[in-house]
Amino acid sequence: MRVVDGIHRLLAALIRGQATIDVEFFDGTAEEAFLRAVQANTAHGLPLSQADRRAAAIRIVASHPQMSDRAIARTSGLGAKAVAAIRRRSTDILPQLDARVGRDGRVRPLDSVAGRWRAAEVMTENPGASLREVARIAGISPATASDVRKRLQSGELPAPIRPAAARTPGETGDEVAVPVQVGQRRLERQARLAPPDPGSLLEKLLRDPSLRLKEEGRHLLRLLQQNAIAVRERSELTAAVPPHCGDLVVNLARQYAATWLEFAQSLDERERSVAHRTAG
Q1: What is the mean pLDDT of residues 154-176?
Q2: Helix extents (H) in the chain
């Protein structure tokens, strides 16, 4: 029967001699009631002083550490940076959480690195999974899942840095870290061995002005685009070849492939020579 919001309205009713007043009951803990009271007092009535807002933020950080800095700032009337400073000074007494609840009520991880690696594992095990499904399983946003997929297609790791090193079994009795390390090593090996996505490589070349502004460069880009189309539509092209032309097309395809291989080898030798001279 504690008044959470409306103590001044209650006193006014008593002064007028009212015997009853309409109320809205709140069912919750004392910490939840305090949070509701602060939200109500910052939304209407006499504004809270800076000291009152700060005291409220300190209490909310202690009672609701899962709330994000922005959510607490909106509730208490302080700035997000001020709430973050309060949280840093209270680190020793607060529980260390892996995620926080934002102003929109959604749970977001504090460190998305582990989620990125988990998303990469899901994509590796189930390439046909949608971004929303991957995001739900890994606990990240669909936008982050999309970035992970692009990085894997480009031959990069899921995140610029690795998750924090896991403890070995027996150190603290926690034995769930080893599979995570094994999964990281497997993903790193796959990222190194898997060829980059041709589409992403071609897009980078198409944006390069040193190729687009020269006739020879434009000719090379056209050839690469035609090969990209052939790779993408090879099943349709295979079906288009009549039986009596099969041997001719096979010979031509092999000759063209050998020509491209020679081109790649000569270009690779040139790049190695330039790198050697630069290093020397």
Answers
A1: 54
A2: 7-15, 30-43, 50-63, 69-76, 80-89, 112-125, 131-138, 142-153, 177-193, 198-206, 209-212, 215-232, 234-240, 246-279
**Per-residue pLDDT tens over the stretch 16-60:** 999 898 888 888 888 788 887 887 777 666 677 788 888 888 888
Residue 187 in any domain: the answer is yes
Q: Which residue has the higher pLDDT, 162 or 268?
A: 268
Contact of 38 with 83, CB cutoff 8 Å = no
Q: The tokens 């069912």 sit on which residue? A: 27
Domain limits at 48? Answer: 7-104
Cβ-based neighbour number of residue 170 at 10 Å: 8
Q: How many CB atoms sit inside 10 A of residue 268's CB? A: 10
Domain shared by 229 and 249, yes or no: no
CA–CA dist 256, 96 (Å, integer): 60
Stronger pLDDT, 97 or 246, i.e. the higher one: 246
Mean pLDDT of all residues in 95-123: 64
Residue type, position 151, single letter: R
- Do 257 and 236 reside in the same domain of the chain? no
Q: Is the pLDDT of residue 240 over 70?
A: yes
Q: Which residue has the tokens 């040193």?
A: 210
Residues 146 and 184 in one domain: yes
What domain count does the chain have? 4
22 and 75 inside one domain: yes
Q: What is the dihedral of CA 9, 12, 16, 20, to 10 degrees?
A: 30
Supply the pLDDT for residue 162: 59
**181 and 99 belong to one structural domain:** no
